[in-house]
Protein: Transporter
Organism: Salmonella typhimurium
Amino acid sequence: MFFSDVIFLWLPCLLLFFFFFLFLFFPFLSCLWLFRASPWRGGLS
């Protein structure tokens, strides 16, 4: 009973944290990957 209550309370928090983590780090990682995999190294400089 207690375990299910803890899961029920912490699941939305974990989901929010997970989506916040994705929202924060996915653009950064995609930019890094594009910069590393780009044919023209150095970007638009």
Notes: The chain has one domain: 1-36. Residues 1-36 form one domain. The mean pLDDT is 79. DSSP finds one helix and no strands in the chain.
